[in-house]
Each structure stands twice: as C-alpha cells, then as structure tokens.
Amino acid sequence: MALAALLTGALVWGLIWYPYRVLRDFGIDGLSATSLTYLVAFVVALLVWRPRPVRPPHPWLLLGLAFSAGGCNIGYVMATLSGEVMRVLLLFYLAPLWTVLLSRCILGERLNAFGGGVILLSLAGAVTMLWRPETGVPLPRDLADWTGLGAGFFFALFNVLSRRARDVPLDQRVLVSFLGVVVIGALLAGTQLPATLVSPTVSGEAWGLLLLTGLLVLVVNLVVQFGLTHTPANRAIVIMLTEVGFAAISSWYLAGESLGPQEWAGGVMIIAASLFTTKMDS
To answer: What 3-state class would DSSP assign to 169?
Structure first.
C-alpha cells in the first residue's frame, strides 16, 4: 500500500503540468489556475478535517511554510507552462543542494561527507546543464530556468521548515501550505483572477477540469503523506525519484519534448545527488 501510494504520487506529480497547460489553452492563465485549484483543495480539506480554531503554536513557522509552499508550487507550474518540462524538473531537483545549505543555517545540522557529496554532485550537474558555450558561463537560459531553480529552492525551504515544525499537526501544515499557494497566487495574478472568474469565454469543461485538478492535488497530498509515514525515508526518496521518469515519458508523448546529451548528463548527476541525501543522516 505504501509503495503504491508513493508511486501514485510520483506519477501524478510527473503529470501535473499537463492539466495546467490544458487550462491555459482553455483561457485560464497559470497564476489564476494555480490559485483556484489550490483553493478547491483548501476548501475541501477544511470541510473534511474541520479543525478547531486555535492559536498557532509557531506563527512565524506557519507563515514560512505558507510562503515557501506558494513559491514552490506556483514556480513549478509557471516554469512548466513556459519551459521544457524535463529541464524544469531537473533544475527543480537541485532542491537537495538547497536543503543541505538551509539545514545548516536553520536547523544547525552539521555537514557530513554525504552532504558534501550532495553539494558537489548538484553543482556539477547544474554546471553541466546550464553551461552556455556562447557565453562561457553556466547560467539559466530563460525565465523558465530561473523559475524552476527558484521553485526548487522554495521546495527545500518548505521541507526544512516542516522538519522544524514537527510538533505542528499535519493537517494544519497542509492547510497552511494550500492557503499560501492561494494567497500568493492571487496577489501575483492581480486583476487576472477576478477577470477569469467572470469571463464568459471560459467553458464549463474548463471549470470542471479546474475542480478535478484541485481535488487531485488534495488527494495526492494525502496519498503521499500516507506513503511517507509507512516507508523508511531513504527508500521513499528513491521511489519518489520515479517522478523524473514519468515526467520524461509524459513530456515526450504529450508535448513532443526531449533533452539533449548535455541536459541528460547534468540530470544524471542531479539525480545522483538526490540519492546521496539518503545517507546524510548516517
């Protein structure tokens, strides 16, 4: 059950970019679509859990979780809407590099040999992927690259803050992360969001897909949490890395995208760095 839960989560996250592209084609921009789908997830979760209003034990941690969740999810969606899915995902998976550095700064964790391996492999993979012969420097080539990198950083920040907030109930952390995506997405969308809500050109099919995507976001979060709870952390990381394979196949089949040798070489090093994180607590 736990293995199936993690594989299901990896499959969904490897494909989640596609409904947002369909919603964009229906006339719902990325920021509005992200805000509205996570609003659906938030409202349904609120109705199911019905948490009692209590004073949050760590307000600053909850604010940090909301902000980092917003940056992670919005950044990932916006990057995959405008960039190559696999390239964005591999840059996103530089998260272990940021996790090592943030854990040292926020949690005070000491860096061991495996943490050093994560840093070296991540940096080598990033340099390989981002190397631009025309400039002679490893820099992101467009806004999608920058956004994918930023989303990975916020994902790492969310994970580190979640470890710091272990005594905060899981349902509260999930609700706060959903709300963070909704609020930050709505602020960035500005007038686009209310214009989308009243637009007569958005079809019922589009609203149905938006509702379905929001429910999918909620369900996959719960499924992955179940899998993580019943699986050793080092094994869970390896299983969740199958997301890269699902994304590679789906982006090739659904969007006709493919990576060159340079991206694949860098990607292998980045994935290897993710595997090294299973040994960091040794």
So the answer is: coil
Contact 234, 278 (CB under 8 A): yes
Q: pTM here? A: 0.88
DSSP 3-state assignment of 137? Answer: strand
Which phi-psi region, left, alpha or beta, contains residue 149 (left: φ > 0; alpha: ψ -120 to 50)? Answer: alpha
Cβ-proximal residues to 144 (8 Å cutoff; 6+ apart), any chain: 79, 80, 82, 83, 84, 87, 88
- Domain boundaries of the chain, sorted by first residue: 2-279
| CA distance between the termini of the chain | 27
- pLDDT confidence tier of residue 234, bands split at 50, 70 and 90: low
Q: Which amino acid is at 176?
A: V
Hey, how many other C-beta atoms are within 10 angstroms of the C-beta on 56?
14
- Position 282 pLDDT exceeds 70: no
Sign of CA dihedral 212, 217, 218, 221: positive
Residue located via tokens 């981002």: 130
Q: What is the pLDDT, as a whole number, of residue 32? A: 95
Q: What is the pLDDT of residues 59-95, one digit of tens each?
A: 888 999 999 999 999 999 999 999 999 899 888 888 7
Ramachandran angles phi, psi of 138, nearest 5°? -85, 90
- State the chain's mean pLDDT as an integer: 86
